[in-house]
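Lab notebook: predicted structure, single chain.

Context: the supervisor wants predicted structures on file for every construct in the current expression panel, including those that have not yet been purified. This is the next one on the list. No modifications to the sequence; it matches the entry in the shared construct table.
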Amino acid sequence: MPHSLQPPRFFVLLSRVTTGVLLINLGTPRSPSTGDVRRYLREFLSDPRVIDLRAPLRFALVNAVIAPFRAPRSAAAYRKIWDEKTGSPLLAHGRALREALARELGPGFAVELGMRYGEPALAGALDRLCAAAVARIVVLPLFPQYASSSLGSALARLYELAAARTNVPGLVVRGEFYDAPGFVAAAAEIARPRLSAFHPDHVLFSYHGLPERHVRASDPSGGHCLVSASCCDAIGPANAHCYRAQCAGTTRALAGALGLAEGAFSLSFQSRLGRTPWIRPWTDVRLPELARAGAKRLAVLCPSFAADCLETLEEIGMRGREQWRAAGGEALELVPCVNAHPAFVRFLAGRVR
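Prediction complete. Output recorded below exactly as produced.
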């Protein structure tokens, strides 16, 4: 190319990728086979932030009890929602979100998806962004509410990986977004037409559960969380990182955005594991309670998940629907998560910019 037709140097510099964006989600097995699910469960449950027991006891519990006995059941559940072409719904939605966010941000941004457990691994995503020589990385964990076992674990692993590198770009972390207007607006935009067409008698906000001891450990005062029935009514210094309080905050924000009247909605917690006390109320207990109270048409939102996955599609959309009908309910409508909805993509792009 003649020198006079070459682009100016400043144009070339501006066209380079300068900002990396790292989307982080929990993870998924490689396949719905029992072996792959067992490997995934072992990696997931061996995290001391997930099962906070002493290492020898955790190792024995995971490898001798939970993984061997739970893997076949979990694998059967995964097979119900697995797509032959796209695989895991969580991964398919994650890839769609990565592509949509890259289009929304445009030139100058490199977007990668990394999973805390399984593949695509967080380490590989960080490697690809560093190989692109980005000046900074904006980290977007896809966990609306903070919990040490999810968002906390993802960030701890990211910092561990970054600390092992010689050259580390600047990391800008965007944390939880449980009541962020953009997230609430996106979730409400998805739910509003569904609720309008379905005409529910009640709307249930079902969140992933957490052991009570995790919630108490997040309370620096040691005397607020789970002490009274009103402990989650407002966010303050004692419960600023309380998962249950943030779930209550999400419920209040979404109910307000959807115009739900008091008494027409409630929240609950699903997916509990083991015999230790988990935060209440429990979804599988709440369903028959609502049916006995006269509700026939139930809409369920799962706002602790940014992407539809095993816990939404199978646990609520299949088993929950069966339980609802067995309890006397007529119909259960599972409202999709924000996934790669354009409004959610715009919200995330705003967090990057």
